Amino acid sequence: MSTPEDEERLSPLAQRWPRASKFLLSGCAATVAELATFPLDLTKTRLQIQGEAALARLGDGARESAPYRGMVRTALGIVQEEGFLKLWQGVTPAIYRHIVYSGGRMVTYEHLREVVFGKSEDKHYPLWKSVIGGMMAGVVGQFLANPTDLVKVQMQMEGKRKLEGKPLRFRGVHHAFAKILAEGGIRGLWAGWVPNIQRAALVNMGDLTTYDTVKHYLVLNTPLEDNIMTHGLSSLCSGLVASILGTPADVIKSRIMNQPRDKQGRGLLYKSSTDCLTQAVQGEGFMSLYKGFLPSWLRMQSDWITQGLPMRPSPVFSKEESNPDHLP
């Protein structure tokens, strides 16, 4: 007769260590999704930083010489001017970032859901708890992943610097971390963290609320059932709203992270995220805050495959429950 210890030892790993298994699977899925969609992220970053009005203060001629190209022309320009593989420049810190962010977000969210908020008496997890928990988990995950995000953004711009005749800043990923740490200390690794966590909170809020609202509407008011089609349509809408809310903070984050710095690691263009926002709007117009919007939205649609699905609440009502005859 087998003992409980033997049964536990022979049970699948996913049952013995559910959180560790979920984290491992999430990390693998995140890596695949990152490799597949990274050219969109690179194109987004190039568009966000292109045409910075603040560069005029330093006498940098890059703003005047940079062509204003859309997503497709920017991607083609990178291939033609730098090479096809340069579309994946900075992908290594991006993978690091995705693993840290997804892991920190997932662990924080599950802790909030099970320990802090808890389910209601009917075992239902309300939408408002999902939204608040998702925003808080996104903030924690993004804060932990900020150093990898910083290195990713700076490495994505190395090809542009080379075309402009500027010296390259890094020899590789580990050299980038070491150089930033040496120049700015631990604090330097968290440059741009304020707009970074603001973006994470806004994206999670828009994603969760829109996903739940659209999915409820589709299940209750259309012939569609709660299946992959409904999930895909809801994700499409939630990604759009999340991009609308999060892109301005993303632009500010990218510019602060990429700005030139002095020997002490202090930024030469922007004093704060508010200063960056003001200079962008005054020098380039309000729509400059939405540079890179299209590739950002397209890339957002892959999130439901990797990190968004575990945190999205299920519809509260079924079609039968929406019928008045079934109401109490």
UniProtKB/TrEMBL annotation:
<keyword id="KW-0813">Transport</keyword>
<feature type="repeat" description="Solcar">
    <location>
        <begin position="125"/>
        <end position="217"/>
    </location>
</feature>
<feature type="repeat" description="Solcar">
    <location>
        <begin position="21"/>
        <end position="115"/>
    </location>
</feature>
<keyword id="KW-1133">Transmembrane helix</keyword>
<protein>
    <recommendedName>
        <fullName>Mitochondrial uncoupling protein 4</fullName>
    </recommendedName>
</protein>
<comment type="subunit">
    <text>Homotetramer.</text>
</comment>
<keyword id="KW-0677">Repeat</keyword>
<dbReference type="InterPro" id="IPR018108">
    <property type="entry name" value="MCP_transmembrane"/>
</dbReference>
<dbReference type="InterPro" id="IPR023395">
    <property type="entry name" value="MCP_dom_sf"/>
</dbReference>
<keyword id="KW-0496">Mitochondrion</keyword>
<dbReference type="InterPro" id="IPR050391">
    <property type="entry name" value="Mito_Metabolite_Transporter"/>
</dbReference>
<keyword id="KW-0472">Membrane</keyword>
<comment type="function">
    <text>Facilitates proton transport across the inner mitochondrial membrane and may dissipate excessive proton gradient associated with oxidative and metabolic stress at neuronal synapses. Regulates glutamate-induced proton conductance in astrocytes, shifting the energy metabolism toward aerobic glycolysis and lactate transfer to neurons for ATP synthesis. Can transport chloride ions with lower efficiency. The transport mechanism remains to be elucidated.</text>
</comment>
<feature type="repeat" description="Solcar">
    <location>
        <begin position="226"/>
        <end position="317"/>
    </location>
</feature>
<keyword id="KW-0812">Transmembrane</keyword>
<comment type="similarity">
    <text>Belongs to the mitochondrial carrier (TC 2.A.29) family.</text>
</comment>
<keyword id="KW-0999">Mitochondrion inner membrane</keyword>
<dbReference type="Pfam" id="PF00153">
    <property type="entry name" value="Mito_carr"/>
</dbReference>
<dbReference type="GO" id="GO:0005743">
    <property type="term" value="C:mitochondrial inner membrane"/>
</dbReference>
